[in-house]
Amino acid sequence: MGKKIAVLKGGRSLERNISLKSGARVEKALAKLGYRAEGIDVDARLVKKLKKMKPDAAFIAMHGKSGEDGTVQELLDILGIPYTGSEVLPSIRCMDKVLSKHIFVADRIPTPRFYAFNRDAFQELGAVDTMPTIAGELGLPIVVKPSGQGSALGVRFAHTVEELPAALISAFSFDNKVLLEKYVKGQELAVSIIGRQPRALPIVEAVPKTEFFDFESRYTMGKADYIVPAEIPDDIAARAVDVSLSAFNSLQCSGFGRVDLILDENSDVWCLEINTIPGFTETSLLPMAAQAAGLSFNEMVEEILLCAMEG
User: Fold this and answer.
1) Domains, the chain, ordered by start
2) What are the catalytic residues?
3) What is the pLDDT of residues 244-275, one digit of tens each?
4) Measured torsion, CA atoms of residues 187, 103, 280, 268, in degrees rounded to the nearest 10
């Protein structure tokens, strides 16, 4: 009889619906592979359900808060249940874009210039008066992002100094900490990484039909085109892979993940962020990259699971 796997999905993050779709695909794949897969829509009864189920491992298909930020990983550690993907500390680092950016800078991983502050600085310490200085340093437009959200949720472009406060207020509706990042014009690349000995899958280029690769572009069929593998020179592709693996190792990630990059007009590669639990849906980039590498969806899912079960 196959091993019992709990597939954790859903939860209460803003990416709940995507997570449910990811989880459903993973469950189906695991069942076809001969595992006893049982989906759990994560809620306040999670620990009770896991204690009753006694799974051999958990496959985490939760995106966003509670799934990617170390929260569910901490619970699984307490319960002694092996789980897919990165451990607690790397999950915390990757989910917090400001923290990960500071680590990239410290480890000399190329990342666009940025500033960041929290809600108190904005509301109580007059941070709004730094907007002209920030615009002068970073140039316009500026990309404004909530620090702890995924799937481009809450991301706004400020094309003028006057637009910055509204963009910040919007971002603060998603998180207490906000990142203001220099806009780098170029090609949007994604490098998916998998395996106990981390290896990069073929690079995916996302070509959105909107201003940038936003939530709608990511999860709506026909809203973006994808080129797999990306049509870039071999030396640049090698550099993109090198930057991605360096970032993945810098934040001590494991199992699998996806590194988002920008290739600018001068052929320089810039690391934006790492997603520790990228999507498993039909429009998700990780499965596209796996397919281009000759890995079926089921094979990819099993390799990710075995990374967790075999240590």
Assistant:
1) 4-84 (3.40.50.20), 93-110+185-310 (3.30.470.20), 114-182 (3.30.1490.20)
2) 15, 151, 219, 258, 260, 273, 275, 279
3) 999 999 999 999 999 999 999 999 999 999 99
4) 20
